[in-house]
Every structure is written in structure tokens, then in C-alpha cells.
Amino acid sequence: MPQAVFHSPYGPFAVVEEDGLIIKLDWAARRSDPTPLLREACRQLGEYFDGLRQVFDVPLDFGVGFQGAVRRAMFAIPFGETRTYGDLARALGRPAQAVGQACGANPIPIFIPCHRVLGASGLGGFSAPGGVETKILLLKLEGAGGLLI
Fold it and tell me: Domain named Methylguanine DNA methyltransferase ribonuclease-like: which ranges (predicted)?
């Protein structure tokens, strides 16, 4: 599968493409063979980290079924805003624990902003390197850091 390495402020990761869709951010991959879609995805990531982009418009693989519904719900959370696992659970008619598991299984963090989903009484987790610290940095980048105080 084609992939392009993106050097973020939090370390490098590969953006992976399959069948014309962004399918994964791979924190371990370091091979780069960018396609036009991958170059565009990296350009948009650069704009995001530079504070110039709030919405991604590259084609993403949201998946199907319940996980796909959770990913679409996360994608709909506006830049700089957050929701709780419970908020998404109520909207989807499913238990918050199931929503949390689906968030943790999100293969395309940042593009599908699972960092914008918080626990009812805490931050919840984040699967990228740096874990919750990276989640906090992303929320601060979006101006949602005030929610953390």
C-alpha cells in the first residue's frame, strides 16, 4: 500500500492509502512512496499543524457498521470542540464503553479526531505515541485546551 511519511510536531508517522482512500496513520512506518492523494493529505496535515486548517477534505475510509458510525460521529465534532463518550453513545443509541472501544480502534487519528472525545470525568485515552499527552497537545492546538483546566 502506498504511504507517505509526515513529520509532525509529535514525531513522524506514515499516512497510508488504499483504493483512493486514506485508511491509516501508522506510527511505526517510515517508508515513503507518495501518491497525489498522499501528498494532498500531508499538505492538509501541515496546514492543520500550522493552524491554517480546521477541516480535512481528503477521502477517508470510515469503515462500516458501528465502528463506521462512531468514526463519522467523531468526524462531525467541530474543530476546537469536544464531546464525551456518553454524548456519542446517546446519539448512536449504544453503550459508552462500546463507543470508547470504537474510538480506541480508530485507525486514522487526527483526520478522524478521536482526540476530541473525552471521558465524563477525565480525558479518556489516546492511541498515538505520547498517549494522553499528545491528546492534550492536539486539543490545545485547536484552542480546546481551556477545557482541560
Answer: 4-62
Q: What is the CATH number of the domain that holds 117?
A: 1.10.10.10
Is residue 111 a part of any domain in this protein? Answer: yes
| pTM of full prediction above 0.85 | yes
| 114 assigned to active site | yes
Q: What is the mean pLDDT of residues 5-17?
A: 92
* Count of other CB atoms within 10 angstroms of residue 76: 12
Count: domains in the chain? 2
Residue 57 domain-assigned? no
Q: How far apart are CA 72 and CA 44, in angstroms?
A: 19
Active-site residue (options: 14, 15, 108, 114): 114
Given the DSSP bridges, would you call strands 3-8 and 11-18 parallel, antiparallel or unpaired? Answer: antiparallel
Statement to judge: residues 70 and 42 lie in one domain:
no
